[in-house]
Amino acid sequence: MVCLYAGPLMIELIIGGARSGKSSYALDLAKSTGNKLHFVATGTALDSGMSERILRHQTERGPEWSLVEEPQNLSALVSGFTRSDAVVVDCLTLWLTNWLCGEHAGDWQDEKLAFIEALEESPAHWVLVSNETGMGVVPMGELSREFVDESGWLHQEIAKVSNSVTLIMFGIPQILK
User: Fold this and answer.
1) Which of 2, 53, 175, 176 is surrounded by the fewest CB atoms within 10 Å?
2) Which residues are catalytic?
């Protein structure tokens, strides 16, 4: 796999549906940098299904990856990475869910802005994984509509600051930017 950008700042957004292959693609992309590998997990094991997903991802990564588990405060950890680091964040929509369903949902916009601003200043290579949720019908429930709207706006803002955006469908990367 070829690194798509070799400049001083690198942010890559990998987006796709469930089981599209986006996480595997993101891991391969980070490995191709030759940098020290870090995985930031935003998911938490609240049920057996999520525990199985987490275990599958851990097995897929292997021991060369350092793990940071951070379900909410991504902005606080960005400055801890250097130019020699490749950081995969998986995934942004779980991060959003953690905020919308958490005690401090009203602070979401501030956290989102702080994270994006921190990314723009970071010398590390960032690979951000997220689920595409806006291609279906408008959901009926209020929280579901808020989630779809907020994820759409989050993806637009991340895409603006990203050097590359890749949509994964059926394991096939489609370069959008």
Assistant:
1) 2
2) 57
